[in-house]
Amino acid sequence: MKLNEISDNEGATHYKKRLGRGIGSGLGKTSGKGVKGQKARSGVAIKGFEGGQMPTHRRLPKRGFNNIFRLDYNEISVSAVQAAIDAGVLGANVTVTVEVLVAAGLIRRVKDGVRLLGGGEITSAVTFEIAGASAPAAAAVEKAGGKIVTLAKKKAPAETPVD
User: Fold this and answer.
1) What is the dihedral of CA 116, 119, 121, 125, to 10 degrees?
2) What per-residue string of b and e applies to 116-145 under the rule 16 or more CB within 10 Å gives b?
3) Are 124 and 92 contacting, i.e. CB atoms less than 8 angstroms apart?
4) How many beta carbons lie within 10 A of that of residue 100, not counting itself?
5) For residue range 19-74, what is the model confidence (pLDDT) as tens digits?
6) At what angle do helices 78-87 and 135-144 cross, to 10 degrees?
7) DSSP-derived 3-state class of residue 117
8) pLDDT by residue (tens digit) across 22-31?
9) Half-sphere exposure (CA, 13 Å, Cβ side) for 156?
10) For the chain, how many helices (H) and strands (E)?
11) Contact (Cβ atoms closer than 8 angstroms) between residue 125 and residue 145
């Protein structure tokens, strides 16, 4: 191999379009921008503009709101906990908390707590210390001989400034 034989791979270089260089180039005269007007100029920003008509985003009514006190829970099913116990990832006599579930890999990160949902069955008598549980989940755990301890809500209201 010689230095004068070295070249880029095929398609590695993209050459800039040469605009306004004659009719034969296909991008001459107006440079592919059509004819006159606002959009043929530079610096155009008319995203929601509809020619003076009231734009759609202003014609439609506003709807809903964001509740700033809403809590975001991790959700886990009863069957997922039982599968982890059967696989040996969780101990049958361990109190199941958020930290235990993260260590076992059943949830990825701690949010505002864990809610137990009742999809499936559980056969082990397990104690849960979690934020909440659905009625079918609570019934399944109690039927198996376990219990659910509900923890207090994690988020506190914002501090008021002291004068």
Assistant:
1) 0
2) bbbeeebebebebbbbbbbeebbebbeebe
3) yes
4) 19
5) 999 999 999 999 988 888 888 888 887 788 888 899 999 999 999 999 999 999 99
6) 40
7) strand
8) 999 999 999 9
9) 3
10) 4, 5
11) yes
